[in-house]
Design brief:
This protein is an alpha/beta fold and 220 residues long. It contains ten helices and eight strands.
């Protein structure tokens, strides 16, 4: 059993595509942009919103920032609650906490709406550290966010570099960004198949473990 577990949010704790897709459509309607194919919509779950607009939809910096702002206009009021916690996640978090694990959230979503989501769905109480990106979406690189979580854990929750090196901490997520960010910070990594990623994606990224259900984390 790992002592320190870092969780992604979208696709790992919450099933959130409804709110994300609705807010993307809201921003695109405002800009007069046709909707992309469904697989492009799904690709927005995981990386930073700015990167998705800039790289996937090939927008210039100013337009991508405008789209992020318009997306958040709806998301921060309605979209963040158009989601649900995956079956088995709350029970798994409770069992991990009772077993003595220190749990954290490391997400590319801004911190403030992340806290609101965790509170709304009754799982905030399980997490000692919650770190997201800045309000404007900057600082959303997964390695940066995980590094900030680790710094907080070392300062306030007993984590040492020796514990990291001996494999007592792991990053859990549903996309390759979680696996790559975790590995870049020296963590063990766990890919979850019930989210928005795939087994092939995790294998290419080099995940240490791949699970199909949240409860399987208890057995690692």
């Amino acid at each position: 059993m790992y002592k320190y577990l870092l969780f992604d949010l979208d696709g790992t704790i919450t099933k959130s595509e409804e709110g994300i897709f609705n807010c993307m459509k809201y921003a695109m309607d405002w800009a007069g942009i046709p909707y992309p194919a469904p697989e492009v919509f799904r690709s927005f779950i995981g990386p930073s919103l700015y990167d998705s607009f800039a790289n996937t939809l090939h927008m210039e910096d100013a337009q991508a920032k405008e789209m992020v702002a318009k997306y958040r206009e709806r998301y921060n009021v309605i979209g963040l609650f158009e989601a649900e916690v995956y079956d088995g996640v709350a029970e798994t978090l409770e069992k991990l906490k009772k077993s003595g694990c220190i749990l954290s959230v490391a997400t590319s979503k801004p911190t403030e709406p992340t806290l609101r989501i965790l509170e709304k769905f009754g799982v905030r109480k399980y997490f000692d550290v919650v770190v997201g990106s800045n309000p404007d979406g900057t600082g959303s690189d997964k390695k940066i966010i995980i590094t900030q979580v680790l710094e907080s854990l070392k300062k306030d929750h007993g984590l040492t570099e020796e514990m990291v090196m001996s494999g007592q901490a792991a990053m859990i997520g549903d996309r390759r960004y979680d696996i790559e960010g975790g590995k870049a910070c020296g963590l063990q990594t766990i890919g979850v198949l019930y989210g928005y990623g795939s087994r092939e994606e995790f294998e290419i990224a080099g995940a240490d473990h791949i699970v199909e259900k949240p409860q399987e984390i208890l057995n690692l």
